[in-house]
Amino acid sequence: MTPSQSGQKFFGVLCGLVLILVWATLLLFADEHMLLVSGQANVNSALFVWIFLGPVLLFIGTGMYFSSRSDWSEMKRQQLYAVFKAGILGFFLWTLVMVLFPGIGTLSAISPMLPTLGGYLLMLFLMMFLLWRSRVQVTGHRK
Around 101, how many Cα atoms within 13 Å sit in the side-chain half-sphere? Predict the structure, then answer.
């Protein structure tokens, strides 16, 4: 890795961290507003924790992608695009699952990170499927 690529990667991670800070500020502001309106805080709910932590990896990856995408080959760009699709799709699907099935939130009594782990596992499954599918499309056969 050249110093230029290393600098671009660092800048990408830094951009991702800025996105995370903006995201966290917006969520905490929204929760504070809800506390004032309804008298009930949502910070400890499993859905709030997922909405807070779910896109963290996606933000860091997005910063890295946009800061150094011009240096990558077409195949690498297609793979990263599949990873981003999996992250976005997995985040919204797991959010929908948690809204439709609130019993998943009760798993946080066992471990506070268990519902979040379920969302990350869904993202991982979708990422592996989309990477497999993109490999089939690029090469024309399964490996």
Answer: 7
Residues whose CB falls within 8 Å of the CB of residue 34, separated by 6 or more in sequence, listed in order: 40, 41, 42
Q: How many domains does the chain have?
A: 1
Residue 44: closest CA among 119, 112, 115: 112
> What's the N-to-C CA distance of the chain in angstroms?
28
Please tell me the distance from the alpha carbon of residue 43 to that of residue 39, in angstroms, as a whole number: 13
Q: What pLDDT tens digit does each residue of the chain (143 aa) get?
A: 566 666 767 777 788 888 888 888 887 777 666 555 555 555 567 887 888 888 887 887 777 777 766 667 777 777 777 778 888 899 999 999 988 888 877 777 787 788 888 899 999 999 899 888 877 665 555 55
Distance CA 20, CA 5 (A): 23
Query: Which structural domain, as residue segments, surrounds residue 43?
Result: 3-139
The span from the CA of 81 to the CA of 133, in Å, is 12
Identity of the residue numbered 88: I
pTM above 0.85, yes or no: no
* Local structure of 54: helix, strand or coil: coil
